[in-house]
Amino acid sequence: MLELEHTDVPGGVAGELPNRCGDVSQVLARVGDKWTVLVVMMLAAGPMRFNALKRRIGKVSQRMLTLTLRGLERDGLVSRTVFPTVPPRVDYELTPLGRSLQTPVVALGEWAFANLDAMNEARRDYDARREDL
Amino acid sequence: MLELEHTDVPGGVAGELPNRCGDVSQVLARVGDKWTVLVVMMLAAGPMRFNALKRRIGKVSQRMLTLTLRGLERDGLVSRTVFPTVPPRVDYELTPLGRSLQTPVVALGEWAFANLDAMNEARRDYDARREDL
DNA sequence: CTGCATCCAGAGCGATACTG
DNA sequence: CAGTATCGCTCTGGATGCAG
């Protein structure tokens, strides 16, 4: 997890964000890990069982899905409901907090979609320039 | 870097985001790393020299700042200008693409700021519940 | 001042096997 | 079906030292 000094930003980041960059980073550490966003996106469709989720995401290990879900549950973004049946059944569902996270994440996703070509081109150019040394 | 299967999402993530979750993840891998967002935020104030940037951020190693800046430069988010003086001077500055990234990142930052208390409380509750086993 | 190279500890994560 | 435990690899990232 991140832990930053309280570096006071004088300017003010486009005049909007308070100088609590540590907070932003902390949340980004949660959101930025390998599977969190995928899980949140998948759960947007509604409650889902463990293996359904696993199949949807595709190439996630059972271990990592469990860990990611535990983390999200701990942060209050996902709720976990156990049905004491046999075989056991566990449903995962976004909490209101988790659903509210979708708004900024979707915004980021739209930025990603809109600018992916530009980024790929920039990368190609950069790599090409680095080859003729 | 992430590399996901092309898992087609039928539902559609709140009906907004296309089923290109891979793209989102790829960008998140860039944005989600430890220093990227901090650097972008700092550069929001305007062009900055290497050490000025380093001092602003505070507890970043020289190595990681260099690596982060190279990555951002490669992705076309930051431009690097060398002044062939002595001692050498290098200015880093957000490109238009980099500046456009601020919008969604600031949105995420505002979400973080608004919901940090809720998340911390959720964590406390979760940890407390786990203690009385 | 800037920025590479090296070394090294630790985190992240996948594969596998096992339990209720 | 859901979850835990263990192993081992890779990658991150911090510290240090050297060079233009």
UniProtKB/TrEMBL annotation, chains A, B:
It comes from the Bacteria. Pfam families: HxlR. GO terms for molecular function: DNA binding. Keywords: DNA-binding, Membrane, Transcription, Transcription regulation, Transmembrane, Transmembrane helix. Gene3D superfamilies: Winged helix-like DNA-binding domain superfamily/Winged helix DNA-binding domain (1.10.10.10). The chain crosses the membrane at residues 35-53. The keyword Membrane applies. The keyword Membrane applies. InterPro entries: HTH_HxlR, WH-like_DNA-bd_sf, WH_DNA-bd_sf. Residues 21-120 form the HTH hxlR-type domain. This is Transcriptional regulator.
